[in-house]
Structures are given as C-alpha cells and as structure tokens.
Amino acid sequence: MSRLGSIGARLYRGEVGYDFVGKRKLWYGVSILITITAILGLVVQGLNMGIEFKGGLVVTTPKTSVSAEQAREVAEDVSGHLPIVQELGTGGLRIQISDVGTGEADRITGELAQELKVPAGDLNADIVGPSWGEQIANKAWTGLGIFMVLVVVYLAIAFEWRMALAALVALIHDITITVGIYALVGFEVTPGTVIGLLTILGYSLYDTVVVFDSLKESSRGITKQTRWTYSEVANRSINGTLVRSINTTVVALLPVAGLLFIGGGVLGAGMLNDISLSLFVGLAAGAYSSIFIATPLVADLKEREPQMKALRKRVLAKRAQAAAKGESGVESAVDEEGHGPEDESEDAAPAGAVVGPRRQPARGRGKRR
User: Fold this and answer.
1) Is the pLDDT of residue 287 over 60?
2) How far apart are CA 290 and CA 214, in angstroms?
C-alpha cells in the first residue's frame, strides 16, 4: 500500500486525525479574512466586464506581424477609446473597443485595416449590443438563484436544514472568493466566466455532500452512548473522507490547470482563460469550504440542540469520573496529537462510527503447570 493510502486508511479507522472542528474558530477567522479581501477587491478594483456585457466592437485579424502593443496604440488613436487587445493562438489579434455604435464601427474597421496593413475583407468585425449582455447577466442571476433554492431544498430533505444552511454558506463563500479573485487579477468577465461560475457550484457541493453523508451515518443513534460528542463525530467524518476529498480535488485541478496555464497562457486562447480561472479558483475554494467551513458550521448548529448539550454533559462527566479514578479508557475523540481513543468502556459507539484500536489483554506464551 502506498504511503498516502496508508495514511488514508489510518484516518478512516480513527488512528490519526486533525482536530478541524476543535480549531474551527481559527478557520472561520481565515475564511472571513479571505472573504473580506475578495469583497474589497470587488469594491476598489471592480470587475473588468467584457464587451459582451458593455457592448462595442470586436475585430479579429488574420495572422499578422503587428504586435499587440502596436495594435493597441493604433486602435486607441482610431477610436478614441481604450481598447483591449489579445494575441490569438493563430497568430492573429482580437481587438475589443467598448462603447462603439453601429455607425462608427464601419469607420473604425476601415481605418484599422489601413493602419495595420491588412485587407479590409480579411478583418472579422462584430458589433455587440449592451442589451444582449444585460440579458446574459439576468439569466445568470436567475440560474444561480434557482440552483441555490434547489440545493437547499434537496439537502434539507436528504439530510437536515442545518446541513442545508451550512452548504449554502459554503457556496456563497466559494462564489465570493472566485469573483473577488477575478477583480484582483483583472481578468475579463465574459460569458465563459459565467459558465465557469455556474459549473463550480456542483464541484463545490460534491465534497460537502460526501462529508455530510459520512456524518449522517456516523451520528445515527449518537444520543444512546456516552463516548463521543457530536463535534467529535463530525471531526472523525472529516478525517475519514479527507484523503478522498484531496484526491478528487487534485485530479480535477490538474486538467483545469492545463487549460489555464497552457491553453490560456501559452496558446493565448482567451475563452479558455475565462473558464479555467473560475474553475481553478472555485474547485480549490470548494474543497477548502467543505472541510473547514461547512462541517464545523453544522457541528456548531447541532451543539445548540438540547439533546446534544445533554450528551456533551454526560460525555464530559464520564471522562471526568474516569480521570478521577485513574482510568484512561475514556479520552477525547481526537487529542492534540490527533490520536483516537482507546476504548475500554462498555458503551457502544454510534452506528457507523469508526473507533480507534482497542487494547488487547496480554496473553501468556504457555500455561503454568
């Protein structure tokens, strides 16, 4: 078995682990700091909305020896507006000029062909109206709202409302960070960006549902025992699915990174940049939120229930009693070193919960005569 597989097996059995839930205030603080930074980026920097949303003229040239900087200067002189020029993988250029009307577009196209020494018939000019971009934005917001409602309803039915609320908070966290990164980096927001944002919602939800499913099974009948609090069971569920979450996230990030750094950076495909950046940031944020936000938040909400408060009191009382008697059979579910308890009590663990190794009585090598 590989080293990673061995660690995953030990995490699943509860032999090792990290106290994610116990240190949840730290991760809440980190998440709040990242979210505030993203919001400040949106407020100060703003989004670089693409021409599809603002309207204007898009001119694509065939393969040319003119550099992007030269084309940018020519387009600015001809149009009087600050253009956006991108190099295409074919060797051509894509020139975007915002706030250009239909009557002005023909003149600008002709002058560009003359200044760039390209036949006017070889230039591909498209005029985009701002109303079309407004329709796209409205449909994107509508799709996002419908998705959020369906997610909350499904999770409330399949699990419970606390898990639905935690998943919704994690989704909002992921979208905010992704949009904030777009603002800070200055990437252009295009329909491809909208597609990427809607796509990451499913990926972000996947890891969260996996942990929630494990937690649901592990916490079944939890009030009938006195070994574990709900927070400790939630923490074991995170550790038990940790390697799986890391593996699925890394496997998903590798091809997206290829799109972002090779397809967008090397080949210069603008649409690949738009989709891949949102996917890359969203996948990473989704894996983070499912581990450090969603499940700890569920534990916080569940611990407020009277039944869980009573359970915590019973668990702590039994541990204090065992400590007073000098017994070590009942310990914290995950101590500072990350080791699970060595159970010697007669209380049954929750159904589906994974317990640590048990101490076996020493056996003699032979019988005394």
Assistant:
1) yes
2) 13
Task: Just give the CATH number of 7-49+132-302.
Answer: 1.20.1640.10
Measured CA to CA, the distance from residue 211 to residue 170 in angstroms comes to 13
Token match 């950076």: residue?
A: 265
Beta strands in 246-317 (DSSP E): none
- What does the buried/exposed string (b/e) look like for 82-120 if buried means 16 or more CB atoms within 10 Å of the residue's CB? ebbbbebeeebbbbbbbebeeebbeebbebbbebbebee
Q: Nearest CA to 278 among 183, 197, 176?
A: 197
- 215-240 b/e (C-beta count within 10 Å ≥ 16 → b): beebbeebeebbbbbbbbbbbbbbbb
**Which numeric CATH code is attached to 56-128?**
3.30.70.3400
Query: Using N-to-C axis directions, what is the helix angle for 130-158 and 161-185, rounded to 10°?
Result: 150
Distance CA 138, CA 128 (A): 17
Q: How far apart are CA 47 and CA 166, in angstroms?
A: 28
pLDDT at 241 over 50: yes
Cβ distance 128 to 55 under 8 Å?
yes
- Record the pTM: 0.71
Residue pointed to by tokens 């994107």: 140
CA distances from 97 to 58, 113, 127, 352 (A): 6, 15, 10, 61
pLDDT tens digits for range 302-352: 999 999 999 999 999 988 888 888 754 444 444 433 444 434 333 444 433
CA angle 70/75/77 to nearest 5° reads 100
What residue ranges do the domains of the chain occupy? Answer: 7-49+132-302, 56-128
- Asked whether the domain spanning 56-128 has the same topology as the one spanning 7-49+132-302, the reply is no
